[in-house]
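User: Could you check the structure of this?
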Amino acid sequence: DIVLGGNVEKAIEAVEADLAIRSLVARYAQVMDDRDVASIPALFTKNAKITSRDGKMDAQGRDHLVKLYEGRFAALGATHHIVHGVDVTVDGAATAHATVSSTAEVWRNGVHQLAALRYHDTYEKEDGAWRIASRHFLLFYYTPIEKHAGLLGTVMRNLTYGEPIEADFPENTEAFQKYLATHPA
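Assistant: Sure, the predicted structure tokens are below.
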């Protein structure tokens, strides 16, 4: 969200921040797909934190994040992350947050899989560059491609780790629950 009006300089700074953050999000996808381990630290603040609802992603600090991603890469072949939307809110001159909608095709443990996810991000401007300060992963689904058909008919859409796991969204969002409460099936 960028509010134009009032202070033109601040508005221009907000637009510049928004564009830089969108570029950062795109660069993250490229770095992951290319397995460009050397570029991972520049994506994150020194004390960045990565988490996920299922606990599979949990690390803090650049060195730990690199190890986390190297561990994930060990189970993966080729991947293709596609960013669909970045809803950025610039909070100040050096802070912002966003919800990022994304999908990914992955080759995981010898199986072609599909994932749809959201990242809830915070960003900080550190050493003159916008970086990810925190990223929380939420999965809509993560499934072998042959199990994708009909998957939206169940909330148990995370099938990649053996036992099915409940999807992180939208069923767990306040808006979705409110909708269901006011629109019975």
